[in-house]
Amino acid sequence: MPRRSGRVVSQPNRYLGLTETQVVIPDDGVEDPLSYKHAMNYIDQDQWVKAMDLEIESMDFNSVWELVDLPEGVKPIGCKWIYKRKRDSAGKCPKTPQEVKDMRRIPYASAVGSLMYVMLSTRPDICCAVGIVSRYQSNPGFDHWTTVKIILKYLRRMRDYMLVYKAKDLILTGYIDFNFQIDKDSRKSTTR
């Protein structure tokens, strides 16, 4: 039988000032249904049925499964539907098809892609900002679009700023750790 220590383990003093906090995200009062029964009891049940029909059509079109007759003595695998409303960055559901259409018209993905190209080729200073706005490609809101416009304004304001070298006394020196070109016969690596 292993021996147990009688030492009392206590929380370090450095954690005494920390308190747990709870963040409550305000909701517009609309909860997502937990099951098919709940979805059919909601006011917008016709939209849930339409969404399920579209999902089944999509799975059929993409050949996700093939419908076959159930063999004798075999139980089918269950299928769980997950009902979720699409929400914007503020956590609100678009109320009308017009709101959804308005956000689709904004070229968010194209703008973020262009910013990534600029960041990788010539402007590493926008790396952090582009990294943050690229996280919201799947569900951008108007706040994200405003942030992308701020980055574009920054680039427009900073286009005349550059590094300037004096034309006189410019000596460019390069250093390497190894070189394959020194030994012309064997092309062995030589370090300096």
From TrEMBL:
Protein's name in the database: Gag/pol protein
Organism, scientific name: Cucumis melo var. makuwa (Oriental melon)
